[in-house]
Amino acid sequence: MLASNLISSKLHVYWDDPVLLVLNVIAGTGKCSPYRLPVVDSRLKVKGVITGRRLLEVLLGRRGIALRERLGIRGLLRKSVGLFCDEAHNVFSEKTPVQAVAQFMVENNIGSTFIVDETLTFKGVIDETAFLNKMKKRRGDIEVCDIMQTSVYTVSPQANLFNAAQVMLDNRVRRLPVVVNDEVVGIVTITDILKHILIEEKHIPAVLEDSEFALEESVEEIMIRDVAKVGPETDIGTAANQMLKEDVSSLVVVRDEKLEGIVSRIDLISGLARISGIGALIELVKQ
Amino acid sequence: MRKIKDYIPIVGRDEVEEITYLAEYVEGAKVVHVNSTKFGGGVAEILMSLIPLANSVGLRAVWEVIEGDSYFFQITKAIHNALQGEFSVELTPEMYQHYLDINRLNAEKLDLEGDVVVIHDPQPLPLVEHRLDGKWVWRCHIDTSKPNDGVWRHLKRFVEKYDLAVFTMERYIPRGFRGRFLIEYPCIDPLSDKNKPLNHTKILDVLERYDINPDRPIIGQVARFDKWKNPLGVIDVYKLVKRRVEDIQLLLIGVFAHDDPEGEEWYRKTLNYADADRDIHILTNNDGVGDLEVNALQRSLTVALQLSIREGFGLAVTEALWKGVPVVATKAGGITLQVIDYVTGFLVDDLKNTAEKTEILIRRPWLARQLGRNGSEHVKNNFLITKALKNYLRMHIELVGLLKA
């Protein structure tokens, strides 16, 4: 089977799209918005990649400093995303065997790869979804507690959004469980903060003036209370199924409502490969 | 002097137009790159190509090299090893002071006035103490994911003074690092002497000069001589393969860099270990092996090996793949981004497995050709210098970008 058969998304933005438009796409309405988007030119040649993290960095003045100083954030939001995106790494030919792409992703813990044809024209993205779809019916002897991340950054409900954003950017994580006395009461993600900035119209002028002010509300005002949770003894196939069904990028692992860890989409896939061997993942992909 | 337009046949007109578009935002900006050697090693090679290319798109890029005595380079090699995870390294107060003193002396001599100053690797890291105006960037090319804590504590305070840090991979970022960062894969220049296309006669000339038989299979590794690159392991693999493929030859190619005092010692160790085997060719710049020769020798390989124990990125792998040579390699550092198992080469865990995979490729030229073709395409998609140039331009725009006229 070739990589082109496993493409899970063709969503992309154009190189000259303004940052504001891209913010609209990434902070979309789905629970699991496209955190990472390919940036292409008018002929669909891959030009880069833009992530929720990068957008938040730009909005909070951690990136794009020089242009922000000259244009103000209003001007910056109207600049083309091509100036702020990152180089597209992990680009594969559509003729690459899908097993090789799977192995590459787990060896390097990379959640998505771009698929192109021989002229570097964008064909789509292979991300974790494709593998979770294969995994969701698998039942075996690997439990979530075998593969979850146990060192988890958390935040209190009273923390303000600006601080929560800084914790995520500083520690390079996308999500923070909101915890009171070890009990998980909610979750907040980079996408939630972007949505908050975008959807709550009252914030747009505030962001334009001072991003810190815009994010002075507390985490509990925007956190998702209906957290997608899973028990530590849950089979990873069941967890994969739950992630797809609930359309979330991670599950919080709890025992008696107390936080034990967190498991993301790539953790499930890498975990399967690490414990059962890369052969198990490849077998799954071939099915 | 190469110009950006020269790359159109390789990367296409779109890519070059994008570069010129980005460059207009930073036209005339002065960018100073500082590293510790003009010659030898991946960083010097990247700068050798990047600087003229940046100038050709309108930047004013200059390259400064710090100078130091042999004690300084012993210290910086120890720091390099410590950052790559060698826990036995200790930085005494005297060593640390010498490291700072030499950097201070260099700060007085070098031209560090730029809109952007890019400091490469740990050797010139403390120059930031003497920063003038302009934005300062630390480009870390090595794997600092599990640094020696004692040494890292000393260096961290310098890193924190930079406006931006650039790492090769996200997993190389040291624990506790909280600053602004970018990820940039290293790259190769397809038009440099080391990588440009060569005709068959030139390759045969070079092989003849070093008494290598072009009609017999050749395996080899291009790497500095040090323990992280495992040159003795390469000889072990050769000996294992030799039992079944009698006419095999081994090439070990290394360059002595000015900032690498351990090179001599490991070169001698490797020579002793080869035990005067006539089919093992250990060649260095002292034997007249320059970029063109490395290019020709790499192109002559049936299989390239890279058995590094720790690796920054492994540009020698990128170069071999670009030349259509399949690579059998360990899973160190950035190698797993390049060697895709069964597609561009084989990933291996031990020497026996390396020997088996090498033999498979020697006995099946059609498979070696196919993996080589895939490798070349993978490099074109991901690791060419035009990508690095774009990354640098975006970084400059971010730090000092001007409005387009």
- What sort of overall outline of chain A do the alpha carbons produce when their principal axes are compared? flat
- Residue share in β-strands of chain A: 15-25%
- Could you give the count of β-strands of chain B? 12
Task: Tell me the strand percentage band of chain B.
Answer: 5-15%
Number of helices of chain A: 14
**What is the CATH architecture assignment of the largest domain in chain A?**
Roll
Oligomer: heterodimer
What's the number of helices of chain B?
15
CATH topology of the largest domain in chain A: CBS-domain
| Helix fraction bin of chain A | 40-55%
- Biggest sheet strand order of chain B reads 2-1-3-4-5-6
Arithmetic mean pLDDT of chain A? 87
CATH class of the largest domain in chain A, please?
Answer: Alpha Beta
Query: How would you spell out the order of helices and strands of chain B?
Result: HHEHEHHEEHEEHEHEHEHEHEHEHHH
Q: Distance N terminus to C terminus of chain B?
A: 28 Å
Largest interface: A-B, 41 and 40 residues
**3D shape of chain B:** globular
Major β-sheet profile of chain A: 3 strands, mixed
List keywords for this structure.
heterodimer; A: about 290 residues; alpha/beta; CBS-domain; 2 domains; 3-stranded mixed beta sheet; 14 helices; 11 strands; about 20% strand; flat; B: about 400 residues; 6-stranded parallel beta sheet; 15 helices; about 15% strand
Summarize the structure.
The complex is a heterodimer of chains A (287) and B (405). Chain A is 42% helix and 19% strand. Chain A has 14 helices and 11 strands.
Describe this structure in words.
The complex is a heterodimer of chains A (287) and B (405). Chain A has 287 residues and is of the alpha/beta class. Chain A folds into two domains: 3-127, Roll (CBS-domain); 144-286, CBS-domain (Roll). Helix content of chain A is 42%, strand content 19%. Chain A has 14 helices and eleven strands. Chain A has a three-stranded mixed beta sheet with strand order 1-2-3. Chain A is flat and about 55 Å long. With 405 residues, chain B is of the alpha/beta class. Chain B has 15 helices and twelve strands. In chain B, helix 4 crosses helix 5 (93-109) and helix 7 crosses helix 10. Chain B is globular, with a radius of gyration of 21 Å. The two termini of chain B are 28 Å apart. Chains A and B meet through helix 3, strand 4 and helix 4 of A and helix 2, helix 14 and helix 15 of B.
